[in-house]
Amino acid sequence: MKQSSPGKTTSQEAREAFQKQLRPFASREPIQLLCGRCNKAVPGDMEWICGYCRHPNLRTRTYSFLNRCQSCGKEPKSLVCPHCEAMVFLTDEKDGMQPARKFVALEEPPPTVDPREQKRKAHEDEVEELNRQIQLAEKNALLARAKAAVDIKPEKSEKEKSVDQLVNRIRSVLKLELAAPKARAMLVDEFKDNPEIAGRIDEVIKMIIEEQDFRSDTDRRV
Ligand SMILES: [Zn+2]
Ligand SMILES: [Zn+2]
C-alpha cells in the first residue's frame, strides 16, 4: 500500500487507500488528504455535503467523500478545502462542477415571528387578562356579599321591635288555630266512646290557644 506518513496522501492516493479499506477484513487507519494550496490535512471521515444531491453525509466511515454519497451513490470528483476554500480535485477529470463540501451543522435559526401568529398570541393574552379580571371581580363580589352578611345589622328601632314581636305572637296563635280543626277531628274520633271527655275538646283547645296568646304576651314583656 502506497501511503506516506500517517495516512497523509494526495487526493488520488487517499481515494485509493480508502477504497482498499472498504474491503472485508481490511485494516482501518485514519486517512487524510493534503490540500494542494494550503497543505493542510482534510480527514477522510470529515462530514460532508454531496455536491450532486446536497445530502449531508454523516456516516463517513463508509460514505466518505473519498468514497461515495450515501444518498445518490455518486463519487465526488472534487472537494472544496475546508481550510482555504481551494478546489481539490479527487480524480484525473479535474471536474469542479459539483464539489463536496464540509458539512457544518447549522445552529437552530431563531424562531421566525409570524405577524398573524403574534397577533393571535396578543389576542389570547388579552382574553386571558380579561378572564382574570372577571374572576377577580366575581371573587370581590362574593367577598363583599360575605362581608355584608357578617356586618352587624343596624339596631332596630323600638317600633320595629314591637312590630316583630306582635307578628311573632300572631303567627304562633294563628298556627295553633290552623292546626286546631285537624287536632279536634282526631280527638273527637279518639274519644268517641267517652262523651264526657269529647265534650271538653273544644274547651281545651280554646284554653291552649289562649295560653299561647298569653305566653307570647309574657315573652314580649321579658
Ligand atoms: Zn449525493
Ligand atoms: Zn486548502
Task: Report what the structure shows.
With 222 residues, the chain is mainly alpha-helical. The chain has two domains: 1-106, no CATH class; 154-221. The protein is built from five helices and eight strands; from the N terminus they run βαβββββββαααα. The protein has helices spanning 11-21, 115-150, 158-190, 195-198, 201-221, and strands at residues 8-9, 32-34, 41-43, 48-49, 56-57, 78-80, 87-89, 101-102. Strands 1-2-3 form a three-stranded mixed beta sheet. Strands 5-4-8 form a three-stranded antiparallel beta sheet, with no helix packed on it. A hairpin with a 6-residue loop joins β2 (32-34) and β3 (41-43). α3 (158-190) runs antiparallel to α5. The chain starts with 7 loop residues before the first strand and ends with a helix.
Features:
5 helices, rod-shaped, disordered N terminus, three-stranded mixed beta sheet, 222 residues, 2 domains, three-stranded antiparallel beta sheet, binds zinc ion, single chain
Describe the secondary-structure layout.
Blueprint (H helix, E strand, L loop, with lengths): L7 E2 L1 H11 L10 E3 L6 E3 L4 E2 L6 E2 L20 E3 L6 E3 L11 E2 L12 H36 L7 H33 L4 H4 L2 H21 L1
Parallel strand pairs: 1-2
Antiparallel strand pairs: 2-3, 4-5, 4-8, 6-7
Helix pairs in contact: 3-5
The structure holds zinc ion (2 copies).
The site of one zinc ion has 8 residues, from loops.
